[in-house]
Amino acid sequence: MNVVEASGLGKRYGRAWALRECTLEIPAGRVAALVGPNGAGKTTLLNLAVGLAVPSAGAVTVLGGRRAGSPAALDAIAFVAQDTPLYKSLSVADMIYVTRSLNRRFDQPYAKARLDELGIPAKRKAGKLSGGQQAQLALTLALARRPRLLVLDEPVAMLDPVARHDFMGTVLAAASADGVSVLLSSHVLTELERVAGYLILLARGQVRLAGEVDDLLAAHGQPSLEELAMAYLRESPSAVTR
Amino acid sequence: MTARTMPARPDGDDARLRPLPWRRMAGLTWRQHRIALAGVAVLLGALAVWLWTAGSSLHSAYAAAVACHPASSPACTNLIVAFNGSATNKIMGSKGPGGVLLQLVPALIGAFVGAPVLARELETGTFRYAWTQGFGRWRWALAKLVLLGVVLAAATSVFGVLVSWYFQPYAGNGQQAPGLYQNSPFANLFSLREVTFPAWTLAAFTIGTLAGVLIRRVVPAIVATLAAYAGLAFAAGSFLREHYLTPLATSSLYVNLPGASTAWTISQWSTKDGRFAFAGNPPDSLVNQFCSSVPPDKIGPLGFAPCLAQHGYTQWTSYQPASRFWPFQWIEGGWLLALSTFLIAATVWLVHRRAA
Which of A58, A71, A159, B79 pairs as cysteine with A8 (C-beta 3.0–4.6 A)? Predict the structure, then answer.
C-alpha cells in the first residue's frame, strides 16, 4: 500500500504554481523524507496530502485510495504543522483533553507516560513550554492518536541540536515499534541521514528525484544523502528552471 | 478465490466511518473560550447591577407618584416632577448615556468574542492543528459557532428581561397617569429587549466570526466587526424598523388620540380638498396668510393644525401604535436570526472550502 499517491498534482496560489505536475507514490512502512530548498513546494505538498489545501490540478489520495481530507483520511493521519501550532493559553492537560475530544482514538496512558518521561508538567500552559517541549508535546499528541501515517512539516527546523535529536528519536521509535508510516519535510539534511528510508527531492514546485535512499545513493554514486541532494540541486540550475 | 494480502481495515472507508458525536465539542469549546465568556459574564453582570440600581429608584419614584392622592396636591406634583426627572435625566433615560452604552454590548460581544474565534486560529496557525483532527473541520466550526451563539443569546435574553422591567414605568401599562412622563417603547431601548437583544448579539457574533474567517487577523477583524455592526444597527433603526408593518394613518388631531404619546410617529403631512398640500411643518407663506395670530408657544405642526383646519387643511399623521411592540420585536428578532443563520452557514462553508 502507498501512504500517498499523487498524479499530475498541482497547486496554484494566484498565478504562481507552488507545486506542478507532481506524480509520486510513497510506500507505507517507512520514513519518507521530503527534501528541498525553501519555497520548493514541500509544505504545499504536505497540506494537499493532509487535506488542508485543495488541488488546483490532478489528484492526491492517501493510505490506499482515501481522498485526502476525507473523514477516513483525517481519522488515520496525524499532522504536525510547521512551528508546531498549539493553543498557547491552554495547559498541557487541556491540550490532551482537546485532542482526545476531537479524535476517535486517543491513547491517554501513552500520552501521559510520554510527557512524564519528557518532564513536561501537565499544568503548565503550552505557550510557557520551551520550543523543544512544544514540539515534543505536539508530536506526543499526534502519536497518541495512533495514526497510520504521521506527517511532519519541518519538525526540527526551529529546534536546537539536542531537542532535534530527541524529537527524531521519538519519531523513529514510533516508526519502528508501532509501524507508523512517516512523511516528513525538512531542509535540514543532516538529521535525515539516520532516519529516512525513502527520499523525495523537490525543487521549484516539481519532483526532481524520488526513490529508496539506498537505491538512489547507489545509482548516483553518492556517499551520503546530503551529498546526493546537494549534487542534484546544484547539477543543472537550468534544468530546474525549465 | 484470491488470497487477501492485506487484513480488512477495522476503520474502513468513508461510508462506514460514523462521525464523532457533537457533544465532544462542548468541553473543548468551553476550555478554549472560557476567558471570553467570563468577560461577557462580568460585563453583563456589572451592567445588570447598574440597571437594577437605576431601575429600583425609578420604580419606587413611579410607585410613589402613582399612589399619591389627590393628584393635584403640591406634594403629588413634587413626586411627579421627581419621577419625570429620573425618567428623563438619569443615565438610562432618554437623555442619559445608558441606552447608548447598552447598544454597545452586542458590538463588544461580536468584536471581542466573535471575531477572534476563527481569526485567532488562522493568525496563529492553530487551524492547521484543529482542521486535521478526526472531528472534521466544517463540523468543528459549526459546533463551535452554534454552541457559543446559543450561550450568548441565552445570557443576553435574560439581560433583555431586566431591560424590559426597567422600562415598565415609561409605558405605564398602556395608560399613563396624567402628568407622568411616558415614552414610546419604540423610541429607546427597543433593540435591547428580550427578543431583540439576543438577536442583535447573535448577529454581531456571527458578523464577527465571518469577518474573522475572511480577514484572518484578529485586530482588523475586530475593527471590521464594529464597523459592520454599527452600519447595520444604524440602518435598522433609521430606515428598516418603521417599515416592518404598514404604518397607520389618522387625520384626527394627533394629541387627542388615546395612547398617542406611546405611539411612534413616522411622518406628518397635510392635504387640502383630498390632495397633498405639504409635508411636516406648514410653509411660512401659508402660516403668514392664515395663522399669523397663533401664539408663539403653540407654534409647530400641532399648533398650526387647528388654525389650518379652519381653512380646509387636513393634517395626517402616520404612526406605529405601541400595541405593535411585540410584533415588531418578533419581526426584528426574526430577520436577525435569519441573517445570523446565513452568516454562520457562510462562515462554515468558508472553513470547509478555504485552502490553507
Answer: A58
Q: Which residues of B touch A51 (CB under 8 A)?
A: 131-132
The CA-atom distances, in angstroms, between B313 and each of B251, B255, B297 are 10, 17, 21
Cα–Cα dist B195/B258, whole Å: 27
Angle between helix A92-101 and B24-67 (nearest 10): 100
Please give the Cα distance from A122 to A114 (Å, whole number).
Answer: 11
A113 in contact with chain B, both atoms CB, cutoff 8 A: no
**Residues A152 and A43 both lie in one domain:** yes
What are the tens digits of pLDDT across the range A34-47? 998 888 999 999 99
Residue A48 lies in a domain: yes
User: For residue range B90-108, what is the model confidence (pLDDT) as tens digits?
Assistant: 666 655 677 778 889 999 9
Q: What distance in Å separates residue B113's CA from the closest CA in chain A?
A: 16
pTM of the model: 0.90
What ipTM, to 2 d.p.? Answer: 0.94
> Does residue A183 belong to the interface with chain B, where contact is any CB pair within 8 Å?
no
Asked if residue A211 and residue A151 are part of one domain, the reply reads yes
Q: Does B30 touch chain A (CB under 8 A)?
A: no
Range(s) of the domain holding residue A140: 86-145
